[in-house]
Amino acid sequence: MNALTARDFDQALEPFALFREWFAEAKSKELNDPEAMAVATVDEEDLPDVRMVLLKEWDDRGFVFYSNGESAKGRQLSHNMKAAAAFHWKSLRRQVRLRGPVELVGDEASDAYFASRARDSRIGAWASRQSRPLESRFALEKAVAQYALKFGIGEIPRPPFWIGYRIVPVAIEFWADRPFRLHDRLRFFRAGVQDQWMKERLYP
């Protein structure tokens, strides 16, 4: 069922159990990238910016993605360590939105995830000056070739600028499609990351 049932509302004391159930269903039924999420940040001029990233891990502490810290999103987060994210699972006609402060993932976890990536992706992380002007495609391919030669067949360490971010939510909203646009919306919220969750239904 797409709808939020009375059980979903009455028994859910916090949002992570419901997200776990929905995410598991999305991974089994969503055709493309169920872990894709839009992440919004704000720049130094207070203009919002949004892009798609991949959720790499999550638990009750928050939702983790990795990026080049010198990219546009990395620079914006260094200015304002807050973000919002949204999942849209079109095949299930469901959406989850969340927002809150952002914290850096520890070096050990970042190293472990970077090591799990495909070798070419690790080389690409070194070669790409993400979000900055690129003079030509050849310049990128040349940089990739240079780093491939540098590392040879040896280990490829994590670049110091390649880091993980964890969005620690203070609000999570679940949206489910219903007929006649009378959709279900269930919002969990808390004053701070150490506070207890509260919940409420919202008008469509």
Radius of gyration: 19 Å
Helix content: 25-40%
List the domain count as a whole number. Answer: 1
| The CATH topology | Pnp Oxidase, Chain A
Q: Roughly what fraction of the amino acids lie in strands? A: 25-35%
CATH homologous superfamily (4th level) name: Electron Transport, Fmn-binding Protein, Chain A
Q: What does the largest sheet look like? A: 10 strands, antiparallel
SS content category: alpha+beta
The helix/strand order is: HHEEEEHEEHHHEEEE
**What is the level-2 CATH architecture name?**
Roll
CATH class call: Mainly Beta
Looking at the structure, what is the overall shape?
Answer: elongated
Number of helices: 6
Low-confidence stretches: none
List how many beta strands DSSP finds: 10
Terminal CA distance: 18 Å
> Averaging pLDDT over every residue, what do you get?
93
